[in-house]
Specification:
The chain contains 11 helices and 13 strands. By secondary structure, the protein is α/β, with parallel strands linked by helices.
Length: 294
């Protein structure tokens, strides 16, 4: 076994069982629902259907990044036990949690001078972040050391492609990511914006597609264009979705038909509360390994 711990946050939007099967340690983001602190704990506190129903009914939902103190409490037991830590954070283009993790690392360095915490900014989100963690766990299990693993993650993290669309613009408008005027017109015309995660880890609207069916087709076309080895892609593919499983299954079926060498079936996960508070229901996100985001 390696002498270090691989770690991430619950915003990797996989499942508790998925993380534990890969021996990836994790800590939870928090969010506020009508002023009450809740844990982004893979839907244990608020199952997605319940969360979105409350939001659609007018509940005030806000996200909260992990504090430096929380990171210290997470890292310290591993350091005290003589283990280094490779921790990968949610994209700095979406959250300030990377800075909190770095602050915790720096404070603990004085107390544990013989140990190292490597903090990697994933520049990824949701199950794209999870796809990166899957690869890192595989490399760790293959014998890669902590420093080498952190360096590999820095070199290759931008190869995780994120393409997603939403059929419900309510919370993109409420959060200011789409203007009210554009949202009104978009709703009338059945516009589904197709978005990706930019090289700096922020969200970017790339295209405005009329109808959900065309958006489903378009994200798969982007995979054909950008996946490593094109239609010969033999890596893994993840999808995350916010209470629109049928739409996610449709995209998965298209992917499995177009990419016969895929490594297993497309895995579909729920979008967690931290990301879901910003997207609301109706979002499908497709993740795969491909060309570097530039």
């Amino acid at each position: 076994m390696p002498g270090y711990v691989l770690s991430c946050c619950s915003t990797a939007d996989v499942t508790r069982d998925w993380l534990e099967a890969r021996d990836i340690k994790y800590l939870f983001f928090n969010y506020y629902l009508d002023g009450k602190v809740c844990k982004d704990d893979f839907g244990a506190t608020n199952p997605p259907a319940q969360l979105y129903a409350k939001m659609l009914a007018g509940a005030d939902a806000k996200t909260s990044q992990i504090s430096a103190g929380d990171y210290m409490a997470h890292f310290e037991p591993f350091l005290a036990a003589g283990q280094d830590v490779v921790h990968v954070t949610l994209s700095s283009g979406i959250s300030g949690t990377y800075n909190s993790a770095c602050a915790a690392r720096d404070q603990l360095a004085e107390k544990y001078p013989g140990r190292r915490v490597y903090v990697v900014d994933s520049l990824a989100a949701s199950s794209g972040y999870g796809l990166l963690m899957d690869k890192l766990a595989e490399l760790r299990d293959g014998g890669m050391g902590a420093a080498e693993l952190a360096a590999w993650a820095e070199e290759h993290k931008s190869e995780v492609q994120h393409w997603f669309f939403s059929s419900d613009l309510t919370f993109f408008i409420r959060g200011g990511r789409i203007s009210k005027a554009a949202g009104l017109v978009g709703g009338m015309l059945k516009i589904c914006p197709v978005m990706d995660v930019a090289p700096d880890g922020s969200l970017a609207v790339k295209e405005k597609i009329r109808t959900k069916a065309k958006a489903e087709k378009r994200v798969v076309e982007k995979m054909e264009e950008l996946a490593e080895d094109g239609l010969g892609y033999s890596g893994k593919c993840y999808i995350s979705q916010s209470e629109c499983k049928a739409d996610a299954l449709e995209v998965a079926a298209r992917v499995e038909e177009r990419f016969p060498k895929l490594d297993g079936k497309v895995e579909i996960f729920p979008i967690g509360a931290t990301i879901g508070v910003h997207t609301g229901p109706g979002t499908v996100a497709l993740f795969f390994w491909g060309k570097k985001r530039v």
